[in-house]
User: Fold Sensory rhodopsin transducer from Cohnella lubricantis.
Amino acid sequence: MRPAIGERHWIIPDGYIPPTSAGTLTSHESVCVLNVSSEEAKLRFSIYFEDREPLEDIPFVVPPRRTKHIRTSSLNKEGTPIPPGIPYAIEVRSDIPVIVQYSRLDATQAENALMSVVAYPIK
Amino acid sequence: MRPAIGERHWIIPDGYIPPTSAGTLTSHESVCVLNVSSEEAKLRFSIYFEDREPLEDIPFVVPPRRTKHIRTSSLNKEGTPIPPGIPYAIEVRSDIPVIVQYSRLDATQAENALMSVVAYPIK
Amino acid sequence: MRPAIGERHWIIPDGYIPPTSAGTLTSHESVCVLNVSSEEAKLRFSIYFEDREPLEDIPFVVPPRRTKHIRTSSLNKEGTPIPPGIPYAIEVRSDIPVIVQYSRLDATQAENALMSVVAYPIK
Amino acid sequence: MRPAIGERHWIIPDGYIPPTSAGTLTSHESVCVLNVSSEEAKLRFSIYFEDREPLEDIPFVVPPRRTKHIRTSSLNKEGTPIPPGIPYAIEVRSDIPVIVQYSRLDATQAENALMSVVAYPIK
Assistant:
């Protein structure tokens, strides 16, 4: 049995799904989660906006001893996705410790731009 | 009632408003703040320079359970904005805990460049 | 004698070796390790995937008072390298404290994109 | 009197001065330091390499209540600068607490790429 490492609660204040793509790559964001343990990690995402109520408790599972690089455009709350082109923020909770990083590829213009942060752990 | 999470005091040493833009996007910086609590967060920004006195205690409010992605070009101290094209640094204080991330889109040249950091928390 | 500083265990959830390059630079990732101590640091890398078992305990040595910027494409487990073009995650363990940063240059398109994070320390 | 905040010891494992520039901007790295206190901060930089002895104890002063965005190409140890085009790592010590961020603009190709990290604090 491998123990879980990391934290159960992570925050990413700067979320943004670029609305358009040019060139050969597609604009996207990924929330990258690593679960080193021998148990499944059950995540819940909450999405906060500037001008409307949050979308809360979107579920996602990361299998034992696996990473998942989760496209934010794939997340939805009972069919409601995160709208592209507006600022938002991401809260990730997990039932066991995991480690979370956020990366964005912006291909709005012909050449791509890249940014990444390790999410902020709430201890 | 949802409790506040994060910290009350954050630092971003590398501030810089790119003076020009090319292509279809506009160069800008954003200070992205998440307030997960049921209360308003009252922020105060202080701006430090290389060669002149700081601009202190610029106010900004983040509503309950909302994020704000604040353009640094919108901040001003009694009408004095942060000048573009010079190095500066940012201090953010909040009356309740929040989480702060800083991102810059540089569109000085035809294609954009992107960088982001979670601000440094003072505990 | 100089003492070791940093941590013995670091995580990078977002690994990805860009499969192609255009322009004058080559797409690559580097795991940058600093060992300030007067002793050798013996590292072991483990690589986690989305859909297969991890590659575990790949060894690497950082000499005393040196940095090594390690290309992930150079790492292999008994001849099995990290495949390009798929998402993965990196765990770094060291027998003495070191400091770890991860950077990626993506030259998939003609102009390059750059991202970097300090790895997440497990304390 | 304003008290100093931050830490006295910071590490940046991934240093690299891009050897060439194209387009309208110049490739460079900056170590961005904020000193919020009413006292001068006396810094000492040490530079570590992959294959040679470190350059140690390069001095730099950050005035009270100021930021300095220090070009790494301006640092030198008794006339010996950091060579461009080779991997290195940076250690920053300060006699009082400061906050340190590292950013790189790579203009090797016609369009620029940008990366930034908050340095790793040694506590």
Q: What stands out?
A: The CA atoms of residues 47 and 90 of chain B lie 5 Å apart. Chain B touches chain A at residues 5-6, 23-25, 30, 32-34, 36, 65-69, 99-101, 103, 105, 110-118, 121 (CB under 8 Å). Chain B has one domain: 7-121. Chain B has a mean pLDDT of 93.
